[in-house]
Amino acid sequence: MCIPDRGTGPCLGAVLASAARFAPAQNDTDKKEWIQLFNGRDLQGWDIKLAKYPLNDNFGDTFRVENGVLKAAYDKYPKFENQFGHIFYREKFSHYIVAAEYRFTGAQTPGAPDWAVRNSGIMVHSQSARSMQKDQDFPISIEVQLLGGLGKGPRTTANLCTPGPTSSREES
Predict the structure, then answer these.
(1) Is 85 strand, coil or helix?
(2) Are strands 142-147 and 46-50 parallel, antiparallel or unpaired?
(3) Given pLDDT bands bounded at 50, 70 and 90, which one contains residue 61?
(4) Per-residue pLDDT tens for 110-120?
(5) pLDDT digits (tens, 9 = 90+) for 88-98
(6) Torsion of the alpha carbons at 155, 160, 166 and 170, rounded to the nearest 10
(7) Is 56 helix (H, G, I), strand (E, B) or coil?
(8) How far is CA 145 from the centre of its chain?
(9) Are 69 and 15 within 8 A, CB to CB?
(10) What is the rounded distance in angstroms from the CA atom of residue 79 to the CA atom of residue 123?
């Protein structure tokens, strides 16, 4: 799982509350054990992957913790040049539920693509950060896309976005 920030502005505040892991070894899919992924203090347990940078090179302090909030921000970049960033929780999960709180603040990062305005997400069923190429923009994954309002009409959120794989749906 990772949280990308596609140049959405100075801050995508994300507090990853927890993930519920089910107990498949005990064959009890109703048993839920909530695990706090984000400790509110630091990025311990997370891998950072920015396009054009090696694993865990957190260029420009892109991912940081401020006042107990996990933030993704490009405010320390001299210029945004498609350095899309993702943060991955190192532990693998399967058969899980993710609960998160998020919000967008600030203006669009100068130089970021128009489609990236208040656009982020939670990647699930993702390739690992370690397996990404240095210049790879996005992990191969299924993304629960999170879109912030633009102040002019409704905007859907929690959309399916598939950077890498193709998704199709047949109408019956």
Answers:
(1) strand
(2) unpaired
(3) very high
(4) 888 888 888 88
(5) 999 988 888 88
(6) -90
(7) coil
(8) 9
(9) yes
(10) 25
CA dist., res. 56 & res. 45, Å (int) = 12
**For residues 152 and 92, what is the distance between their CA atoms, to the nearest angstrom?**
39
HSE of 68 in the Cβ direction (CA atoms, 13 Å)? 2
Q: For residues 19 and 85, what is the distance between their CA atoms, to the nearest angstrom?
A: 22
State how far the alpha carbon of 77 is from the alpha carbons of 10, 25, 110, 156, in Å: 10, 46, 10, 29
The pair of structure tokens assigned to 47 is 């891998």
How far is residue 22 CA from its own chain's centroid? 22
Exposed (0-12), middle (13-18) or buried (19+): which is 154, by Cβ within 10 Å?
exposed
Q: How far apart are CA 101 and CA 37, in angstroms?
A: 13
Contact assessment for residue 59 and residue 86, using Cβ atoms and an 8 Å cutoff: no
> If you compute the radius of gyration of the chain from its CA atoms, what whole number of angstroms results?
16
Question: Within its chain, how far is the Cα of 25 from the centroid?
Answer: 28
Contact (Cβ atoms closer than 8 angstroms) between residue 55 and residue 70? no
pTM of structure: 0.77
